[in-house]
Amino acid sequence: MSNTIELLESIGRNASLRRASQESLSRALDEMGAVDNLKLAAATGDRSYLAQELGNKNNVVNHNGHDGGCDPGDDDAENVPDQDGDEMDTPDNPAR
Fold it and tell me: pLDDT tens, 25-42?
C-alpha cells in the first residue's frame, strides 16, 4: 500500500503524468512497478480498484445539519458576537 501512495504522490507532483493519456500512464506505472489495482484504476478510471488497494474503509462523519453541527454547550462567551451585532472580542480586537 505504501508503494501505491508514493506512486500516487509522484503522479500528483508530475504534470506530465497527471495529464498523460491512459496508455502513457499505464506504461509509466508498469515501469514504476505499480500494483495491479493501481494500473486497473488508471486504465479504467474506476476508483474502486484504489479503494480495494488502500483498504476500502469508509469514513463516517456524524453531523446534524439541523443545528449547524455545533454543540450549543461548546460556545465560549468571550468569542461570540453580541446579539446587537458588535464584533467578537479577540486578542486583536478587545472589547470596548
Answer: 989 999 999 999 999 998
Q: What is the mean pLDDT of residues 15-23?
A: 89
Q: Tell me if 53 sits within 8 A of 35, measured CB to CB.
A: yes
State the cell numbers at 81. 458576537
Q: How far is Cα 16 from Cα 13, in angstroms, rounded to an integer?
A: 9
| CA atoms of 38 and 53, how far apart (whole Å) | 8
pTM: 0.53
Say whether 90 sits in a helix, a strand or coil: strand
Looking at the DSSP bridge assignments, the partners of residue 90 are 93
The residue ranges of every structural domain in the chain are 4-54
Neighbours of 7 (CB within 10 A): 19
Residue 93 has pLDDT above 90, yes or no: no
Q: Answer whether 43's CB lies under 8 Å from 53's CB.
A: no
Nearest to 26 by CA among 15, 16, 38: 38
